[in-house]
Each structure stands twice: as structure tokens, then as C-alpha cells.
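## retry 2 of 3
previous attempt timed out at serialization; input unchanged, resubmitting
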Amino acid sequence: MFDSVNEIFEGAAAKYLSAVDADPARSNQHEIGGLPSVGFKGYLGTPGKSDRSHFPGTMAYLTDEKNTEFCRDEVTWYDARWKNPKRSPEYRLYYKSNPVTELIQPTDFFLVAKKRDGSLLLLFTPAGSSVEFQLRHLFGLSDIDQDFTSASMPPQTLILPIKLLLEDLGVKAFDEREVQNDLDMLLTRFPDKFPKTAEFSALAREVTDFDCIADSDEALIGWMEREEALFRAYERHVVSERIRSGFGASGDDVDEFIAFSLSVQNRRKSRAGHAFENHLGFIFQHNNLPFQKGGGTNVTENKAKPDFLFPSFSAYHDPKYPREKIFLLGAKTTCKDRWRQVLSEGDLQDRKFLATLEAGISSPQTDEMSANNLQLVIPKAIHGSFTEAQQNWLYSIADFIKMVRQAV
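## retry succeeded, writing output
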């Protein structure tokens, strides 16, 4: 497993886009200047006057609503003064128009990073978004303005949500070689098809050594990371086998291939959420907390199904049961705008809780959560991606367990 951003990237820099950068009426919107001042000649080289250096590039426009526009193309590093040999070189990065560039706006946060495999990552997101804070935490970027700032590339361990963000962008953040020895075990245990998520979650706990009573936060992150790595190793094997066998009678049925690709993506999205709930439930059970999960007849108003209700749904519906001894907890691997769903899942509870793995949520969003009496519960290892003021407000998993145990 990759331990730091330095193992994946050589270097990075970021800025806020100016009108000239983003407005097609004021520039051709195809070139990025200013990168030599933050060390990119060392990453991309110094092509001669008539030369061009070409790099595979990934571009993405990211928002907190998870509406991601994504494309891959070749980008070009060249001397913009190549026609004037008497002038000193001025190196720029050229890229073609694409669906991503059509979305960028002045003031957007922009990050460019050189990967160790020789490719480039170019990311755009609205200023002040949670995505911006996550990227700044990942690459070690403090003061940002309309000139490029070089990333400090901090050596700290990559936290799980950041790894998942990178994986969504096509950047390998899980080293599958670490679980290669487990692949035979996985294929022996699950020879025919993907197992149910509960089985994969149980396996992740079986092959790791975490004590969810002594340190529930560490256990949750450890189990989630281990399950993710095991799943991706198993998925890569299964998908590779399927690709080799082809699609349709002739092996080139496009519709069948698209249907298969969608099934792979949907499995990834749904599995992570179920795994999160599985491990949380295991932790609560082994910490002797009375709880029930929503579903079936376990509902609140308007047939809402909270992920976890402490101590029980019967207590929730009992008008004589003290409200201060009832706790409603939602569980979402990422918040985005979905955190508002939790607010409507239990009308009788003024204060609600949300467990998440989301890193670096913006201050405006957490302020809005607090104003709506929604308390975030986040594993301790992720707290460092938040501001100091936010960290003083956050609950860890251990904090939540202690609070419920004392009340019920």
C-alpha cells in the first residue's frame, strides 16, 4: 500500500484561475504558463526551440456534488518562444479543448501534478469546495493565489478517503502487490463469483489484527483499507478474465461491454457503503452497544430507515422513553449533499449523528451541518484533514461509543 503522496507523484503545484486562464474570450484557453517558477522544468524537461515533449494527461472537473467530468488526452510541453531564437525560453503546457475545459471558471482551484509513471494529472474544482481542501491536504498546499504555489508533498500516510479519491481519478493508490499472496486464498474461498459484501467484510477482519474495543477508530480504518485492497485485487482478476473472454458471440459486442462496465462501477459504489455499515455494526456489537439497523418494520416517520438507531426502534416509538437516551446515526462513506437525508430520518430527535469517511469537508458545509444539529462522527486518523476549529467540533468513533454507552 502506498504510504505517501511522494510515492505516487514527483511534484505538484496549484493556483486559482484568473479570467485570462479560464475565459475563452480573453485567451485561447489552451495553455498553462508559470510552471517553470515552481520547478516543473525538473519534472518535464527543457525541450529545444523546435521540439515538443508529449505527456499522457488526465483532466477532471470535480465538485462536492460528485458531478465529475473526466477525460484523458495528450498534453504538450514546449517553448512558446520557439520562433524567436534571440529570446530566452518560455515553457508552457498546451492541452486541447475538451468537456473539462468547457466547465472551468475564473477563481476555480487548479492543481497540476506529475506522476512517477510519466503522466500528468490536471484537476479543477470550485474555490472553497471540499475537494479543494482535500487536494490541499494531500499535496501540502497552504497559501494559494493566482500565481502557482509549489506543493510541499508531505510524507504523512495517505488516508483512506484520499486513496479512494485518487482511485476514482484513475490513479493507483492501492499497491495490489501487497495482497497478491492473498489472491489464491480469495479464489479458493470465492471461486465462482463476487461474494456478498458481508462475507468480504468478515474476511477483512479475519486477516487483520485490530482491536475494536481498545481502538475503534484504528480498527475501522484498518478493516476498510484491508477490505478495499482485497476487493480490488479480486476484482482485477475477475474483470481481466472477463475481458479476455470477450463480449457477445463475436467477442466485440459493444452493448454487452458497456453493460459489464456499468456493473463493475455500480458494484464499487454500493460495496464501499455496505462495508462501512458492516464494520460499524461489528464495532458497536463488540462494544456492547444496544442498537438496531433500519429496514423492514424498523422504520421511523414516513417509513424512513435510519442506518443505526440506539438502543432500538421500540424505544424510539415509545413516548415515555427519554429522548436524551436515543441516538440516530447515519452512515455514509462520503457526505456530499447526501448528509441532508439524515435530517429527515427521525423527526423526534432534535440532534442527529452522521458517521463518514469524508476528508477535509469545507467549513461552510460543516457550519451548515452544525446549524442543523447534525454532528459528524469521523475516524480519528481523518481529523487532520480538517481545520483546527473543525477538529474541536468533530467526534471520533470512540467519542460516539463513549457517549452512547454512558447514556443507554
